[in-house]
Amino acid sequence: MIKISDEVLSELICFQKKYMSIYANRYGQILEADSLITAALEELKKYRDLEKQGLLLRLPCKVGSTVYAYCGVLGILSYTVDSVVIDNEITYQCSAHSNLIGDCPSECLDEIEPDISDFGKTVFLTQEEAEEALRNIKESETGK
Length: 144
What we know:
Layout: H1 6-23, H2 28-52, E1 66-71, E2 75-86, E3 90-97, E4 108-112, E5 123-124, H3 127-142
Antiparallel strand pairs: 1-2, 1-5, 2-3, 3-4
Helix pairs in contact: 1-2
């Protein structure tokens, strides 16, 4: 992914506005496309400013997502993100449930509340990542 500096972003916005005004009278379709590009660049600039101010959060997943973590008794479990709590830190509240068997209700097997910093360390977005981390832990314990 290309990283656009603030200076380049500002230059793009200025160039786009200038270009749009030159061709606005001749080409109506170009004007419409240019307006959309200018609006997109302005919105990108707003998000960039919010991020610099620390007002924009990038979360690893959303409520309803499935995450994976190791449970000592049951192995790797898939958890559903039930909520995200933003307090002094960002905490996810997740629960793992058993599969439905016939008419029997699903049972809660485990609940975890990982911090955002736990993602990629003890909580993972894919089962493969969780399995790889568990293999690494077992290898380091056995000295291999």
